[in-house]
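Continuing the series of single-chain predictions for the mutant panel. This is the parent chain; the variants come on the following pages.
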Amino acid sequence: MINKQKSDLNKDGSLSPYEKRRGMAIAKAMSGRDEARKGGFIKKAIKKPGALRKSLGIKKGKTIPAGKLRSAAKKSGKLGQRARLAITLKKLRKK
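Parent structure:
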């Protein structure tokens, strides 16, 4: 939703086409910030839980060795992406 008071740059009481477009662009950019604050990043990032473990050949319930995780992170493709995400999430975990 556009804020008409803030969008009116010359304070004449009406919005020019430029001011209207600018206000809409700012409102659109700001709308994504609320979603980021809610913390949906991790939920959206993990589409297939257990896929990294399965591709590394580690049984369910066992921890992934750090060395194996680091070597997988150097690889390209989905395996590397998942391993790098796992390393990042490991840093976020409270100890």
